[in-house]
Every structure is written in structure tokens, then in C-alpha cells.
Design a protein that fits this description.
The chain contains 6 helices and 5 strands. By secondary structure, it is α/β, with parallel strands linked by helices. The protein has one domain: Sugar-phosphate isomerase, RpiB/LacA/LacB (Ribose 5-phosphate Isomerase B, Chain: A). The structure holds D-ribose. The site of D-ribose (RB5) has 8 residues, from α3.
Length: 144
């Protein structure tokens, strides 16, 4: 299951991504926001991160204007490794090497076709473990 959310700055792009998830047959939970009224991105980031850390969702996608606020808010959550991506290579590598569990995107930064390609890379690549697990473990130890 994929948890997906946005603020008003990411609303349009989130809908594009939802259409993509539907077309690919992914199970997802759209946790808002559901219109373009101004809201605070940390509130949505918190919902998506909670869904990921409690096991309800395997991965999360967060969209705001730049993706940066969502990324910062998400990475304040224990157990979350959020990656801000504006290119497909980073989206692939952050799954393979960093075991990122949240993808953040900028609805005012990238276009719909690139966004769909980024989401595809994020969702179809798996963590490679091995030496990368050691590095992820070291990184996560900073939380304690
Ligand atoms: C909202 O105007 C904007 O600040 C937000 O969408 C996001 O870009 C924050 O990082």
C-alpha cells in the first residue's frame, strides 16, 4: 500500500500521480488534502509518516510546492527516510542505496510526465542491503 498526500501547492501534481497509481494497479490511500485551500504541509507529512511507520503503508509520497517542506517535516519522524527527487536516477538510487521510504516531490518544480517517471523508479526499485544496510543502520543510529 502506498500512502499519498499533498498540501495546496502539490494538489495538482498529486492528482496526476494518483491517476498513474490507478493505471498501474497500485493500492493507495489518498490522505489529503483534497482541494487547493491553503493548509500546513507538516500536518499532511505527519499523517503519511505515521501510516508508514505503523506499517499501514510500505511507502509514502508527499507533494508540496517545492517538496522541500514536506521532506524536512517527514525526516523529523523516527524511522522515516524521505528523499526529495527531481530526477529519475535519484529516485532509483534512493530506494536501492538509502532504503528511502518516502518520496517528496515539488508540484511547482517538475512537470507531470517527469513526476510519473520518478514515481515509477521509486516504486519499482528495491533496497539492495549489504554494505548499504550498514550505512543505513549508521544513519538511523543518529535518531537515538
Ligand atoms: C506553500 O505555499 C509552500 O510553502 C509549500 O507548498 C511548500 O513548497 C513548502 O516547502
Amino acid at each position: 500500500m502506498i500512502a499519498i498526500g499533498c498540501d495546496h501547492g502539490g494538489f495538482e501534481l498529486k492528482n496526476v500521480i494518483i491517476d498513474y497509481l490507478k493505471s498501474e494497479g497500485y493500492e493507495f490511500n489518498d490522505m489529503g488534502t483534497y482541494d487547493t485551500n491553503s493548509i500546513d504541509y507538516p500536518d499532511i507529512a505527519h499523517k503519511i509518516c505515521t501510516a508508514v511507520t505503523n506499517g499501514e503503508a510500505k511507502l509514502g509520497i508527499l507533494v508540496c510546492g517545492t517538496g522541500i517542506g514536506m521532506n524536512m517535516a517527514a525526516n523529523k519522524h523516527k524511522g522515516i527516510r524521505a528523499a526529495q527527487c527531481s530526477d529519475t536516477f535519484s529516485a532509483k538510487m534512493t530506494r536501492q542505496h538509502n532504503d528511502a521510504n518516502i518520496l517528496t516531490l515539488g508540484g511547482r518544480v517538475i512537470g507531470p510526465e517527469l513526476a510519473k517517471d520518478i514515481v515509477k523508479e521509486f516504486l519499482t526499485n528495491e533496497f539492495q542491503g549489504g554494505r548499504h544496510q550498514t550505512r543505513v543502520d549508521k544513519m538511523m543510529s543518529f535518531e537515538n
